[in-house]
Write a structure and sequence with these properties.
The complex is a heterodimer of chains A (113) and B (115). Chain A has 113 residues and is mainly beta. Helices cover 0% and strands 50% of the residues of chain A. Chain A is built from no helices and ten strands. Chain A has strands at residues 10-14, 19-24, 32-38, 45-51, 56-58, 62-67, 72-77, 86-93, 101-103, 107-112. In chain A, strands 1, 3, 4, 8, 9 and 10 form a six-stranded mixed beta sheet that branches. In chain A, a hairpin with a 3-residue loop joins strand 5 and strand 6 (62-67). Chain B is mostly beta strands. Chain B is built from no helices and eleven strands. Chain B has strands at 5-7, 10-13, 19-24, 31-37, 43-50, 53-56, 65-69, 75-79, 88-95, 105-106, 110-114. Classes of the chains: A mainly beta (113), B mainly beta (115). The interface between A and B is medium-sized, with 32 and 35 residues.
């Protein structure tokens, strides 16, 4: 899918630096959170997830932090590479509401060589 | 292995015409989801299937939108009497089962343009 358009917040980062992408979620009942990466012309690609009973989870070069007190989620990308340039979406799910994901508006990450 | 596939990749239609969008989920995935991504917006949930049943149709924007799934596999999203505001990318996802923590894997989407 084409990434959303002209008014996305954009994070410009130098290749090799760390990136931090933030997301505020709305529903205190949400109990599962996911980060997706979407490159131009493609569908969203799963990066990492976290359940509400955790506050941190690490993957390969990525870390997700969850602060339920302020309903805030962040994605940290270590040693950002040109291939990390994409739009990043957070999504939340309320287990009691089935598997419907509610997505945030997205952040565009531009990696400068 | 094969991922979620969608067809057509692009569809241009005239206002008032009907369109059908197809989704082939990952083999063996029992849950299938449709989302819509409009320009300048995030992804918006439309409907999901567990097997051939649709427990949650709450995201369908109007009665012009309908979806079905047969054989627990392929799904078709139909938009009748298309309007210009229906122009968007329609994304399909599947997961092995429904339930908290089941990762949804997305297809490449169908770009729909209503003239």
């Amino acid at each position: 899918g084409e990434s959303v358009g002209l008014h996305l917040p954009t994070l410009s980062v130098q290749e090799g630096d760390n990136s931090i992408i933030n997301c505020a979620y709305s529903n205190s009942a949400s109990d599962y959170f996911i980060w997706y990466k979407q490159e131009s012309g493609k569908g969203p690609q799963f990066i990492i997830d976290i359940r509400s009973n955790m506050d941190k989870r690490q993957g390969q070069r990525v870390t997700v932090l969850l602060n339920k007190t302020v309903k805030h989620l962040s994605l940290q990308i270590a040693a950002t590479q040109p291939g990390d340039s994409a739009v990043y979406f957070c999504a939340e799910n309320i287990g009691a509401a089935g598997n419907k994901l509610t997505f945030g508006g997205g952040t565009r990450v531009l990696v400068k060589p | 292995g094969a991922g979620v596939s969608q067809s057509p990749s692009n569809k241009v239609t005239e206002k008032g015409k009907d369109v059908e969008l197809r989704c082939d989920p990952i083999s063996g995935h029992t849950a299938l989801y449709w989302y819509r991504q409009s320009l300048g917006q995030g992804l918006e949930f439309l409907i999901y299937f567990q097997g051939n049943s649709a427990p949650d149709k709450s995201g369908l924007p109007s009665d012009r939108f309908s979806a079905e799934r047969t054989g627990g596999s392929v799904s078709t999203l139909t938009i009748q009497r298309t309007q210009q505001e229906d122009s968007a990318v329609y994304l399909c996802a599947s997961s092995p089962m429904t339930g908290l923590g089941e990762t949804q894997y997305f297809g490449p989407g169908t770009r729909l343009l209503v003239l």
